[in-house]
Amino acid sequence: MKDLPKKMIRFDIVSANPKILGSSLTNGLISRVSSKGLIEVHMHNLREYAEGKYKQIDDTPYGGGAGMILKPEPMFKCLKELMAKRDYDEVIYFSAQGIKLKQKIVNDFSLKSNLLLICGHYKGIDERVIKKFVTKEISIGDYVLSCGDIAALVFIDSVARLLPGALGDGESALTDSFQTEAGFDCPQYTRPEKYESMKVPDVLLSGNHSKINEWRIKKAKAKYNKIRKLNKS
Questions:
Q1: What is the pTM (predicted TM-score) of this model?
Q2: pLDDT digits 0-9 by tens, 60-85
Q3: What is the CATH code for 9-160?
Q4: What's the CA gap between 181 and 209, in Å, rounded?
Q5: Is 33 helix (H, G, I), strand (E, B) or coil?
Q6: Cis omega before residue 72 (within 30°)?
Q7: 3-state DSSP call for residue 36?
Q8: Where do the structural domains in the chain lie, given as residue ranges?
Q9: 34, 28 in Cβ contact below 8 A?
């Protein structure tokens, strides 16, 4: 039987601060998955698309107010150039006003082939960029970050680890939190069996896989329900 073709996703990232992404893209899981040929990550420095002596990419907002806004001209020029070269499944802008990134959404994105990621900075980007190009606004949580580059790394990591061959254990991603019926992963233990008077639960030492599975589901559901109540309070 022939081997199935390898799944590969290309990420194009438009950033005003590409150095922020450097370390994470060359270390850890993203780097390993890239070296396996499962993903390609291409950086595009927004400042290279700006005009004038100072390559200005931001300006004050119309109507007044604090903060700076990324200008439309460099962004339009960059995005038009990239989109002329390939068709993107989605053009994503990371924003606190976007839809919440959850595991089901991540699973769906892992089936795509070409994703264009726009990283905001300062107070955000000109709304005309969003209306013209963006197909999805994504938020990684109800809080504000200094730039969208951090959100882009979270997004790439969460998607890349789902690709077949990304992790050493093929079942690992399938038993993560939010992938199972229980909602969360269960408590995990390893050697030694006893440490500082704390002992591994007897059921995990029993060898009874049915009982172990029941215990794991029960503990995972209990933790999930506890955290849900805390999140609502």
A1: 0.86
A2: 999 998 899 999 999 999 999 999 99
A3: 3.40.1280.10
A4: 18
A5: helix
A6: no
A7: coil
A8: 9-160, 180-232
A9: no
